[in-house]
Amino acid sequence: MNTYFDPSILPVGYTVWKGAPDNNFDSQTLIAVSGVYGPGYNQTAQENGNITIVLDRKEVAPFARPIDVFMTPEGRQSSMGWLDPVAARTRRS
What we know:
Layout: E1 32-33, H1 43-48, E2 53-54, H2 57-60, H3 66-69, H4 85-89
Parallel strand pairs: 1-2
């Protein structure tokens, strides 16, 4: 969210990693951007790549904090001890 993409970012954004099992994503994986800007950002190319989803402000709200995202398959909060505790709970604008 609100991220600068420099010119080194491929226009399509996310790409499949070579040699990764199951193409390193599945139907349970949300790969999204919101509020991205800079010379490496190409919204049309990302939408046409059919992997990265472009979310607007309202759509991204449920994912605004790491604490909202890192969940177990059962829907419980997972261990986030590896994250900075302030960053984990702070909503970014």
